[in-house]
Every structure is written in structure tokens, then in C-alpha cells.
Amino acid sequence: MAEKFSGKKFSGKTVYSGITMGKVLILRKDPQIRRVKIADPEAEKERVYGAVDRAKQQLAALYEKAVKEVGESSAAIFEVHQMMLEDDDYLDAICHMIQTEMINAEYAVSVTGDNFAGMFAGMEDEYMQARAADVRDISVRLVRNLSGQEEVDFSAMEPSVIVADDLSPSETVQMDKKRILAFVTVHGSTNSHTAILARMMNIPALIGVPMDLSEIRTGMTAIVDGAAGEVIFEPTEFQCSEAERKIKGEQEKLRLLQELKGKRNETRDGRTIQIYANIGSVSDVGYVLENDAGGIGLFRSEFLYLGRDDFPSEEEQFQAYKQVVQTMGQKKVIIRTLDIGADKQADYFDLGKEENPALGYRAIRICLKQPEIFRTQIRALLRAAAYGNLSVMYPMVISVEEVKQIYAFVEEVEQELKQAQIPYRIPEQGIMIETPAAVMISDELAELVDFFSIGTNDLTQYTLAIDRQNQKLEDFYDPHHKAILRMIRMVVENAHKCGKWAGICGELGADLELTREFLDLGVDELSVAPPMVLKVREKVRGI
Ligand code: PEP
Ligand code: MG
Predict the structure, then answer these.
(1) 161 has which bridge partners?
(2) Which atom of ligand 1 is nearest to the CA of 434?
(3) Which ligand lies nearest to the CA atom of residue 278 in the structure?
(4) Catalytic positions, please?
């Protein structure tokens, strides 16, 4: 295999430049389950028992780890799964199916899992209904074990180049960023949240790479060159030395950028702009400080909700927000309320399948319809605001009525906190401008809110009617489209007329080709991936 692959090069679309070299780790999706006739049912049953034993060991290890990291109550789910694996009805049903239909273990496990999950989901009792997701989880684990595709323990892996068919934000968010050298995927779009995470991590990332995953092995060496849009598997000696030369060049460029730390974001003719950073987790604050950002312009709080089995509690959120504002000291921290839905999915929200998820039940719509979820977050935010320079912003707002509903809700929460004598502060409150509707009524919205932050990723998707997730439409997704730039102008003008400020927190904010135009339009703030802060500063200072 290595022989055949030596020096094999593939091209893809660059999500983030930079160059790296390291070992490959392949992440495979859940295996396709096919119904296969078998001759020896006893051997199939033995395979099932083996997979069950392995699953018990995995769950015991997960339990131990979770107890240490998130506490006993959150870890209990792994104990529940172990107990469910002892359930005779479930195992008997699998074995019965293998015996009577003479079919393979994977198929029997999968169908039995679906049947049991359906049965639980149809029960009256809410607790039993919730077990449906657990049975599905267990079945997936068993099928993975049967097909030899065990889950990767992200916390234990060595620094690797992640190669996958595609990655979802909930998968990406679980990875330990220090252990990822690069992402290379067959599918995906440069505007997806997985791409945004790659930019935040400052690692080379390529998508749309036409590689055959069955030919690539974990442990192979790969060079990922984001700037060239290329990945090379099992590089030759010459390719390695070329890569090393480029890596040194990149390091030198980075070193030069460091000299801009502590300098003002000021053009030669004296105009200034705030350059803030976007983050997705508490641990990203380190990158913000390292890159000398003036504040945090977008904390995507929904990432706290991804890659887990249940809602984060008020206390957990409060601690996370408080830690961020305290670490940032006087600097502004803008926390966006939950923007779940579309590509950011967490099973426990039970959002159901939608025809058009990007136009669906997401973000502020969920918060206004399920106030119990919103209340927990607003309480945590108001409490954390007492500890620093925290601002809150609301995503996907399309009307004045929504803003009024949000304010009424915040007031209710304020009364609760006041009565309970819990320390809090009402923070500065702004909205994201992500829809053409919000742009068109930005004059009215500006009167109500403290600031605007333009989410150009969604604004581009909704204005051009182009799904930002759809790889086929990449060539049509044009954030430089005149319509978008005119919208930005309109939003900034309407904000300024009311004495409010307006920034950009979508990926366009880091587009160096537009920095001059943003300054000309009077944009007050650009919030960009932390590794882009000094690059934008360099650009501003050269204007
Ligand atoms: C945006 O839409 O531009 C934005 C910043 O939000 P997100 O990318 O998380 O949807
Ligand atoms: Mg958005």
C-alpha cells in the first residue's frame, strides 16, 4: 500500500492555509450496514457476545474518564449503557434474529436496536422515551465493534492529520485541538462550521479532496499544504525536504507578525477599527490573548451544547462565561446566545428532520419557543455579566417583535435573580444581522439595540439563496457580491444614525481584500478567527 501511495498528491479546496507534516488518522463514518446471509449462526452469535464484552470495557473506561472530567452525575449515562447491555430481552432478540433469518450480526444488531428504540419512543413515560436514544447509541457501538471500526479516543491520540469523508461541528468540537495538525476531507463546504473551527485552530485544512479513503491508512505520513491546496500521502524524501523548507518560511512569517502585538489598529491616515476574535469554547481564550485581540466579538455559545448527551446546566454555563470574562479583564466579551440547528445538531434537542434546516427551527426561534432552554442561558449570562465586560447578542433575529420578546424575557429573568438576591448585571445587548429582513429594517432595530454584528456567513447564504453547506454551490457563494456590500453599508449607516456601533463577525471580516472597503464604510469592529487578528492589523496599518 505504502509503495503504491508513495508521494501521491491530491488537490482540494483550501479552508485555511499553512503547511504541516504528520501521521494520518482516518475517521470513518458509521459503517454501512448490509443484510448478508450467513451459514453459521453460532459463530455470528459469538461475534455479538465478543462485541458486547468489548463495549462493556469501553463504557467502563468512558465512565472512569467522565467521572474525573465532568463529575459522577454526568458520567452516569455510561453506567446506564453498561446496564442496558446486560438486558436479556435485547440480546435474545438479536440472537433470535440471527438464528431464524440466518443473517449477519451487524444487521441483526442494527434492526433490533431500531425496533427497541421505536418501542421506547412510543411509551408514555418521559424517562422511558429518553431511553430510545440510548438504545441507538448502544447499537451503533456494537456495530462499530463488530466491523472493527472502534471510536477514536480524541484525548489520547497523538498529534495527527485528520482524514475523513466529512466532519460535523459536533465531531470537530470534541477533538483536542492541540492534537490536530490538519483536516483533510472528501466532502464539506468552505463556509461550514467545521471549516470555521479549522480557521480558529490555525491549522491547514482542505475539503473536497477526491481521495479514496479505502486506500489510505491510519499511520501513513501526510503533508498538508493549505496554501497550495494539496495533500501528499507517503511523501518522497524530496517532498519532505520541500515541506520542511516551507514550514520554516511560515514560522518566520509568524514571527514577524508577532512584532505587531501591542500596536494600534490604525491606518496611516489615522483611522482606527477594533479587531476582536471569534471563539467557540473557553479554551480558545488562550488564542485570543496570544494573538492580542482587542476583545471577543463572537463567542459561539452553542458549541458548549454540542458533542454531549444533555443540556449544559446553568451553573456549568455560568462558570464558563465567568471564566471567559474574568480572563479577558477589561476587554469586551460578546457572547452569542444559542445558535443551534441547521448544521449544528445535538440529538438531545430532538429537533426532528426538516426539509430545509437552514431555513428552519434554529437559533433564537428555538429560544423563543422553548423558554426553559433560553431561561437557563440568560440566567447564566446575566450572572456572569456581574464579573466583567460581557455583552450579549442574539442570532437570526428578523423582526422588531422578536427583540421586544427577548427583552421582556430578559426582564423576567432579571426579576427572578433580583428576588433570589443573586448577583447579576444587565449587559449591553445587540443582535446579529444575518438575514435580508434584518438589514431592511435595521433602521428600526437600531433604535432598540445597543449594537449590530453582521453575520456575513448566513447573510450571504440567505441573500444569494445559496446553502452554505452545499459543496456544489461553492463557486456561486460570493460574499463579495455587490448586494452584500450594499447591505453592510446600509446596516452601518442605520446603526450610526442612532449612535450605535456595527461590526462584522462573519468570515468576511477577515477578508484582507475588503479591509480597506470596511474602513471606508465606517465599520467599527471586525471579529475574526484568532490567528487572523495580527494579519488584519498588519493590513489596516498598511492602509
Ligand atoms: C454568520 O452567520 O456570519 C455567523 C457569524 O454565525 P455562524 O457562522 O455561526 O452561523
Ligand atoms: Mg450565522
Answers:
(1) 24, 182
(2) 2
(3) 1
(4) 193, 505
Residue closest by Cα to atom 10 of ligand 1: 458
| Contact 362 CB / ligand 1 (< 6 Å) | no
Strand partners, 231: 10, 224
**Strands across the sheet with 160-164, in order?**
8-11, 230-233, 221-225, 19-27, 160-164, 180-185, 205-207, 13-16
Evaluated on CA atoms 105, 110, 116, 120, the torsion sign reads positive
27, 164 contact by CB (below 8 A): yes
Q: If you search the block for the grid coordinates 419512543, which residue do you land on?
A: 121
d(CA 219, CA 26): 9
Q: What are phi and psi of 300, to 5 degrees?
A: -75, 90
Rounded Cα distance between 38 and 22, Å, is 41
Q: How far is CA 9 from the centre of its chain?
A: 28
Over residues 59-81, the pLDDT tens digits come to 888 788 778 766 777 678 788 88
C-beta of 302 in contact with ligand 1 (< 6 A): no
- Which residue type, as a one-letter code, is found at position 187? H
Q: Output the pTM of the full model.
A: 0.77
Looking up cell 482542505 gives 206
What separation in Å is there between the alpha carbon of 457 and the centre of ligand 1?
5
Is 339 a pocket residue for ligand 1 (Cβ < 6 Å)?
Answer: yes
Confidence band for 396, pLDDT divided at 50, 70 and 90: very high
List domains and CATH numbers for the chain.
2-30+153-252 (3.50.30.10), 41-147 (1.10.274.10), 261-429+504-541 (3.20.20.60)
The answer to whether residue 1 scores a pLDDT higher than 80 is: no
